[in-house]
Amino acid sequence: MNKLQLKGLIAIAALATIFSSCRKDRVTPDPVDSVAPANGIYILNEGNFSRNNSSLTFFSISSQTTISDIFKTQNGRGLGDTGNDAKVYGSKMYIAVNVSSTIEVVDAKTAKVIKQIKLSNGGVDRQPRSIVFNKNKAFISSYDGTVAVLDTASLTVDKYITVGRNPEEMVISNGKLYVANSGGLDYANPDKTVSVIDLNTLTETKKIDITTTNPINIAADAYGDVYVLAYGTDYPSKPKLVIIDNKTDAVKASNDINAGYGTSFIVVGDDAYYITDSGKISVYSVKTESLRKENFITDGTTFKAPYALAVDAATGQVYVTDAIDYSSNGRLYTFNSTGKNQDVNNKGYVTDTGINPGTIVLLTK
After folding, report:
1. Which residues contact 300 (CB under 8 A, 6 or more apart)?
2. Of 232, 239, 234, 189, which Cα lies nearest the Cα of 214?
């Protein structure tokens, strides 16, 4: 199953949008971008749904070498079925494997397993989706309508917080955890809310009705705004970029956006990067709330099926994976801050990956 199915099981295209501009004052954001440049890259490959063939590719930037399935090499077994998210926190990397309903906690430098955590409720799989961190806690959204609170020292779940239906991505802003409730498994009646969790009490305090259904992707800027990409249910459709004020939790804007289904909206400084429905990498200014670049890539490089995106905040390097045909191995591309392809092997791309390379993790020294 490819990402178009995984991210809510609704295949949607999108139309272009016009953004209004405004001035904003910077505040101190909760997320802190790493200032050290990446020296290694992990690519979490989803594999094919129900084929039990997720994998983890590692690419060394310094040596330009690749380990095609470092998880299996280091641990003597595969990751499981449908790897959905991976993030590094401290010395560990946490990998959410959706259909297998596991969290693999590994050493971030070696990929050796420290602990496998099964997320289930009375024998029923919870199906983990996304992970974020705050003050030695990992927050894990799961399709059963909960967010697990995992202690990163003991690696045990402290509690489960009930949120909306089929929660997807999360972001921390202004001392609160915002959770995009997609309801994407219910095609006839998807959700249209964002849960707000108080990080002091670890309770849901409200649900924000964003009007547009099927919210999946979420991010925050340094100006007090939370951005939600919601995709609706029609085909073809008009995805919406919904902007929430993190002080009042009120929806302040909702605009059409030409985002590809399930793409991440990655905020780095004053810019946000996302994959468009036509396969370009667009840049949106979170300061002026307007489209800054229709296509970040300036050398003519194109993709067959752009799938995942990451930006190195220290260098401005942009990393893109291409799923090609969703059934064979994909590819990783890297571009410098001016949008030029950084291939040094004369292949047009950096390295091959596994099947459906859905998450890019930048590893610093």
Report:
1. none
2. 232
Cβ-in-10-Å burial (0-12, 13-18, 19+) of 35 comes to exposed
Please report the DSSP string for 310-360 in residue order.
EE-TTT--EEEEE-TTSSSEEEEEEE-TTS-B--SSSSSSSEEEEESEEEE
C-alpha span between 327 and 9 (Å, rounded): 17
Between CA 172 and CA 177 the distance in angstroms is: 5
CA distances from 75 to 85, 93, 108 (A): 19, 15, 14
Q: What is the pLDDT of residues 276-297, one digit of tens each?
A: 999 999 999 999 999 999 999 9
For residue 70, the surrounding DSSP H or E stretch is: helix 70-75
Q: How far apart are CA 130 and CA 288, in angstroms?
A: 29
Q: CA angle, 62 as apex, 60 and 65 as ends, to 5°?
A: 40
Strand partners, 160: 148
Taking residues 67-92, what's their average pLDDT? 98
d(CA 116, CA 271): 36
Compute the Cα dihedral for 287, 293, 299, 301 and give only its sign: positive
Cα dihedral across residues 69, 72, 75, 81: positive or negative: positive
Question: How far, in Å, CA of 276 to CA of 258, rounded?
Answer: 5
How far apart, in Å, do the first and last CA atoms of the chain sit? 34
pLDDT digits (tens, 9 = 90+) for 323-343: 999 999 999 999 999 999 998
pLDDT (0 to 100) of residue 217 = 98
| Strand-pair category, 318-322 with 329-335 | antiparallel
CA-based nearest residue to 52, from 111, 1, 5: 1
C-alpha–C-alpha distance, residues 148 and 157, integer Å: 7
